[in-house]
Amino acid sequence: RKPKNFPPGPAWFPLIGCAWQLHRLRRRMGHLTKASQELAAKYGPLVGVRIGRERAVFVYGLQAIEEMYTRDELNGRPIGLLSTSRTGGTRKGIIFTDSEFFQEQKKFLQRELKQSGFRKEILMENIQREVRAIIDNVKRKIKDNCAVTSDRLFGEQLLQSVWVLMAGNESHLDDLGASELHRVMVDLSHSTSLSCTAFSNFPFLKYICPDYCGYNPYVRVNRTVIEFSSKMIQGLRKTGSPNASLIRAYLETMDSVGKSNFTMDQLMGICLDIFTGGFETTNNTLCFAMYYVVVHPDFQTKAQDELDRVVGRERLPTLEDKPQLPYVEAVVLESLRMFTGRSFLIPRRAMKDTTFNGYFIPKDTVLFGNSRGTFMDPNSGWPNTSVFNPERFMKDGSLNVPDGFIPFGIGKRRCLGEVFAKANLFLIIAGLLHTFNFRPVPGDPPHFEVMEGLTAGVKPFKMIVSLR
Ligand code: HEM
Question: Buried b vs exposed e over 279-310: b needs ≥16 C-beta within 10 Å?
């Protein structure tokens, strides 16, 4: 059948997104995924929009997103200021590259991480060290017996463990470095959005108002992360890293292969991607989890009862306990649903002229996947989607993950850090609930507000934390 013309939709939508971003209203305006959901209700799973002179498509609903995830010709990443200006003018790293270059680099990273940072004993040592540091950090904060704010509870420790994932268990960031990197990563998150960054959608703005349109801050924070990584790697090169690690393997390949795609600039792009992918997503999921356990003490108590039964009070939970802690895992999955269901996916690019859902999609069209439609929309087949309820992942006392719950994506562009993220989220949430009680501040309950950034976050809130 002859494909229909480009998907229909309003031309003005990205303009509104950019206006939100420019006027820094995003924190009060709720999340753009909701607006795109309303468009999908009117136009269907593919909504055609115009961004400057380019046409783009918003993709909505599980079926359409799954198709986008798995079709090779929809596997590219956009070529634009968002993907080039972060790494000195050309696309580098994993997240924003495509074609054979991307395939070669991702394969290398997957193989090396399997042999180093993702190996069970190395992963456990790294994350358990991080969980103990997070618990000590919270203990220090509650010493004064006043309310604790949700941000800065785990961010620096997360960055520390992401660095160890790349550089090996012997290499650590010092406190000053971790704290500075944390500040920069938060800036990076707030300086941009994956769907509606003004300078990326309207590149001429970088000449007219480079600061106001977000271009300068975006370039500046990315450059700082790259300089930081470069300094750390120079240090590693001088001292020689004693253990197998991703960075050591990359440097060795670079030296042995000589002139190839394995370059220092590309390694910097990879560090930037792993810091960004590893920090932002996990940190925001944890903030959603903390918000919901504070406002739902019953879920908190149920998870704590399970932890007491299975783990006892004498030691911290481990990954070996995970199969016996289905309810704690259900809390993790429900927090992931709340986080990912409010975020846009990393944009895609059509690698050639193709058809999608019956429509003609020309080469280089940018596609924005909205994961709200996969498990947050009332029509997605999940009941009461806006309500936090870990029970939806439980059946007869066991964990039951419904088909179509794909917070880490599927296909060739599936999340590189999935193993690490799952272990991290489980051990941090289990460790915190095992050690502390989290309660609302009397008379000042947390106010739920989604902040748009690179991904969705919860506005920082205060809570009372006490040792169990
Ligand atoms: C809550 C935690 C996380 C979630 C929900 C998440 C989700 C995702 C999703 C859905 C994608 C696929 C995007 C697409 O198909 O276009 C992705 C890609 C990616 N993630 Fe994650 N992620 C998480 C944590 C991490 C961590 C911890 C790391 C690194 C240590 C990481 C690194 C990456 C990278 C490098 C990519 C790009 C892969 C590619 O383009 O092929 N992520 N992530």
Answer: bbbbbbbbbbbbbbbbbbeebbebbbebbeeb
